[in-house]
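Comment on this:
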Amino acid sequence: MGLGSNKSTWQRQTLYFGHERGDKYSSLVFDNRGMGGSDTPILRYSTSEMAKDCIELLDHLGWTKDRQLNITGVSMGGMIAQELALMIPNRIATLNLLSTAPYIENTTSFFENLRTRVMMFVPKPLDRSVLDASLSLFPASWLSLPDTTHLPSDSTPLVESPPGHPFPYAHFSTNYERFAAAELTKRLDPKAFKTYGFLLQAIAAGWHHKSPAQLKELGDKVGRDRIAVMHGTLDRLISFPHGEKLMAFLQPGRAEIREGVGHAIPIQEEDWFHEKMVAFFEEFN
């Protein structure tokens, strides 16, 4: 998952693949170092070291067979996935890189870029921080739409309702309200969101760099027909030109450009994303 996010961000996908289709799929989500339930060592983070964290977890689970893994990474997670693919290419069945980049570069004016970077680290009231986060991840037009998120029910396998909150789960009035509730839950829990962990992750994402030659090697070893790159044209965190550059360097078998979509494709495009993933997984598994 991306910078400052934790594994609960994947809840739509764990519901779809892990609960509702658990007879076909095993779903693994985890917190990157610096966030959530994972440790936050005080040292310089890198996307390559974070990929090694993932490999240790996969090895521990015994997921070591050739062409066994469907790897999906968003944003910084997509950078980690690039490193992972170079380390264990033969274990990957499909590689899905969403809203990510081979490296971060200026695609705006110097002063706009400087302001964006500075504002990431300027303390601000919690409500303002949550609002700014929402607008960096999603188009304002989508945030104002009614919340139609697919929710679990009392018949969903391996799902229990929280004490005192029986099914059915209720929808929020808007997509923004659902995002804000999840973001507040994370930020008000000191174990879920660690400020210094966020800063260390930001260093890792900022220093990530994969050259055209490295991405050619990645494509050669994994197999380009097994790779998908997806990017929204309204991405405000990792702007669309980054996705275009990744597609040009990597030449993936599938390149999906989503008009009018922001940074968080698996959330904004939930149904479309699941359909695409199922078709891709079934082709190579």
Q: What stands out?
A: The chain has a mean pLDDT of 94.
